[in-house]
Amino acid sequence: MMDEENLKQIARLAKIELKEEEVKEFSPQIRSILALFDEIDEVETEDVKPTFHVFGLKNVFREDAASPSLAGEDAIKNAPKKERGYIKGPKIM
Amino acid sequence: MNNVMIGLEVHVQLNKLKSKLFCGCSTDYQDEEPNTHTCPVCLGLPGALPVVNRKAVECGIKVALALNCEVLEQTLFYRKNYFYPDLPKGFQISQYDFPLAVNGKMSIETDRGEKIIRINRVHMEEDPARMIHEGGIQYSRHSLIDYNRSGMALLEIVTEPDLKSPKEARRFLDKLRSILEYLDVFNGDLEGAMRVDSNISLAGGDRAEVKNISSHKGVEKALSYEATRQKNLLRRNIKIIQETRHYDEERGITISMRTKEGEEDYRYFPEPDLPPMSVKSWTERLKDEIPELPDAKIRRFVEEYGVKENHARSLTSDIEIADYFETVCKSSICTIPRQKVVRRAREIDPNMAASWIVDVLKGELNYREMKIEGSPLTEDKTIKILKDLSSGKITEKNAVEIIREILDNGGDPEEIARRRGFGRLDRSETEILVKKVIEENPKVVEDYHKKKKRALNFLVGKVMALSKGKSAPKDVNELLEKYLCED
Q1: Domains of chain B by range and CATH?
Q2: Which of B20, B71, B139, B142 to mutate: most A Cβ within 10 Å?
Q3: How far apart are CA B129 and CA B145, in angstroms?
C-alpha cells in the first residue's frame, strides 16, 4: 500500500525533494500504478522460472588485460570542485 | 571474554589481476597520482558498458574452493543502490541472491584446539573509490575522492557469527590471508588490500556493526574495544542499540555513525548490463590449479621433515618462508654410502633449519620490515651458515651476527666469518685456556673439590670469556672435568 509516508521515504532514497502538495498529487498516481501490478500478480506463474535477463545471453567475459586509462585532467574535467587532482566532495558520515 | 559473538565481512582485493573487474584500467595504481587510472566504466559515465574480467571470476572460484564452498550453478550481478561520493554511478555492482559460492568452512587454531568457522558466502563486487578525510573523519569538512580504486575486483567473504573472541577474529584473518597468498590472487602488503567490517554482540544485547577496519592487525584492537564498550553498557544496564560504528584506527576507538532511519534500503535489482554467469563447470579445471594449502603443508612438513607442529605452522603461514625452508632442506641432502646401503642423509637437520628460520630469521626480517623474497640472505647463504653451525665451525652467536650483517649489508657468510674473526676454537686451543683458568683460580678449584656446584659454573664462564665465546661448551665442560679430576 502506498501511503504518503512510503512515498516520502522513496523520494528520500532517490534524493528527490517533494513539496507537500506534490506528495498529495503523486500518492494516488503511484497507487494506481501499483494496482496494475496487483492485476499482474493474479497471473498464474507457479511453473515459470524467474527471468533475470531478457536477452538469453550468458557468460560474456573479457580477458584480463590492461588498456590505457583517461588522462587525469580529463577524468576530473567535469567535476565542479577539485583539489590537487582529487575530486572534492561533501563529507558524509 | 565470554558470550561474545563475532561475524566478519572481509573485503579482499584481487590485486594480482592486471585489470579492474569491469574495465581494462590497470590495477597498478598504488603510489600513482589520484584519478589517473580511470575510464568511463569505472567513473560511471553515462552509456559505459561493463564487461566481466574472466580471470577475476576464476580467482573468485579458486578462493571459494579453498574455503570449501559450493559454487552455485547460476550467479548474477545486482545493483546495490545508495548515494555516496565514492560511488560514481549511484549504485555498486555487487551480488545478492545468487552469489558466486555459499556454505564453506575454514578451520582456525584456537587456544582450545582446532575450530571450524562457517563461511556463509563468497561474492564478487566492485571496489568503491578511496575517500580521504583530511584531519580524520570526525573533523574534516569535506572529502577528497580518488577513483583509481573504483572498479577494482573485490571478493566479499562473509562468515557466520562463529568467532568467540577478537583473538579468534585475528587468527581467522591471518589464516585467510595466508590462503589467499598461497592461491596467488592477493598481495596483502598493498594498502587497502583487505578491509573488514564486523558484527559483534554480547549475549543479551543487540549487535553493533563496526566498519572500516583496514588492517587485519587492527581487528583485534577494534573488536576488543567494542566488546569492552558493550560490556560496560550492559553492566550499567544500558541497552545496546543496533547501530553502525566506525573504527578510528589512530585513536583506537569506535565512533557511532548516526545512520538515518531506513537508509539501509539498497533496492537491489539484477544488473541489466551484465548477463548471468554459469561457471560451475569451471570448478574441475580450477581445482587442479589450487596448490597445496597451509593445512596440508603443515601436515606434510611434520611428516616429511619431522619438524614440530608449531614450527610447521609458523613456517607455512607465509608461503615464501615455507618455500625457503624447503629449498634449504632439500638442497642439503647428500647421499652417503653406509654399510652397502646408500642412505640419503641431510647435512642440515630440518628441525634445526626450522628453528633457525622461525625463531631467528623471521624475527630479524620483521624487525627490518623485510620480506624473505628479494632479501640478500639467499637460500644458499643460509645453507652455508647452518652447515658451518652444525659442523661446529661457528657458534650460534656467530650465526646470528652473520645473518644480521647479511640482512643489513649483504655479503658472503664465509667472508664475514673470516673478517670478524668468528669461529670455534679447536679442542686443543680450548685445552690451553682450561689449563690457564685452573692455574689462575686455585681458590675456586678448592671450592670445586668441596663439591660447590657454583665453582664449576664460574670456571666455565672464565674459559668462555677468555675464548670470547669461541670454545665449544661441550669441550669446555669435558676438559675442565678432566683436569679438575687430575688435580
Answers
A1: 4-289 (no CATH), 294-419 (no CATH), 427-486 (1.10.10.410)
A2: B142
A3: 7
Nearest to A70 among B38, B257, B275 (CB): B38
Beta carbons of A66 and B24 less than 8 Å apart:
yes
Tell me which residue of B273, B289, B168 sits closest to B219, measured CA to CA. Answer: B168
| DSSP secondary structure letters along B73-127 | SSB--EEEE---TT-TTSEEEE--SS-SEEEEEEEEEETTEEEEEEEEEEEEEE-
Contact between B265 and A13 using a beta-carbon 8 Å cutoff: yes
| Residue appearing with cell numbers 545478492 | B96
Q: In a 10 Å sphere around its CB, with 0-12 CB exposed, 13-18 middle and 19+ buried, how is residue B190 labelled?
A: middle
Count of CB atoms situated within 10 Å of the CB of B306 = 12
Cell numbers placing A81: 570542485
Q: pLDDT per residue over B116-148, tens digit each?
A: 999 999 999 999 999 998 877 677 888 999 999
Condensed to tens digits (0 to 9), the pLDDT of residues B262-278 reads: 556 888 999 999 999 99
Q: Is the ipTM reported for this complex over the cut 0.85?
A: yes
Burial of B130 (0-12, 13-18, 19+ CB in 10 A): buried
CB contact under 8 A, B142 and A88: yes
Interface contact B19-A64, CB threshold 8 A: yes
Measured between alpha carbons, how far is B89 from B180 in angstroms, rounded to an integer? 30
